[in-house]
Design a protein that fits this description.
Strand content: 25-35%
Distance between the termini: 6 Å
Helix content: 10-25%
Number of strands: 6
Order of helices and strands: EEEHEHHEE
Largest sheet: 4 strands, mixed
Number of helices: 3
Structural class: alpha+beta
Strand order of the largest sheet: 1-6-4-5
Length: about 140
């Protein structure tokens, strides 16, 4: 059973400063037929995440642990920021939508298909630096 750990870091650039939740698909008319697509900023965000992942293409079952370290509000005072480090982040975005973005980015890169994942543990917490910590265990 091998274990892989890595982090996805975020920068102060529009669209890449914090983890992005998966949005709903958009639709447009292509002639007589509706066509579904995902917004461009979401696909760019997924590519940004994927570039920081190792190319593993795991074929076995996987136990996955993901910790989303979310940014603190800029309006908070320094003492309040110190109190909130490691506190759970219970505001939007929803954890399931954040997970969906990471799982979509990892499909065909970390693993063949996300159907290989048999167990997921995840959490959202406040942190000084925004990042996603990922731990993969092959079973």
């Amino acid at each position: 059973m091998s274990v892989t750990r890595f982090e996805i870091k975020f920068v102060d650039r529009k669209g890449f400063e914090k983890p992005m939740p998966s949005p709903r698909p958009r639709f447009r008319n292509a002639g007589r037929f509706p066509q579904a697509y995902m917004p461009t900023n979401y696909t760019k965000h997924k590519e940004y995440i994927q570039r920081q992942m190792p190319k593993l293409l795991i074929k076995n079952s996987i136990k996955l642990t993901i910790l989303f370290e979310m940014p603190m509000l800029k309006s908070w005072s320094n003492p309040q920021k110190q109190r909130m480090i490691k506190a759970y982040h219970s505001k939007k975005p929803d954890i399931d939508n954040l997970l969906k973005t990471v799982l979509d980015a990892a499909n065909g890169h970390l693993w063949i298909d996300d159907g290989q994942i048999v167990e997921i543990h995840s959490a959202k917490r406040y942190a000084e630096t925004t990042k996603i910590k990922i731990k993969l265990e092959e079973i």
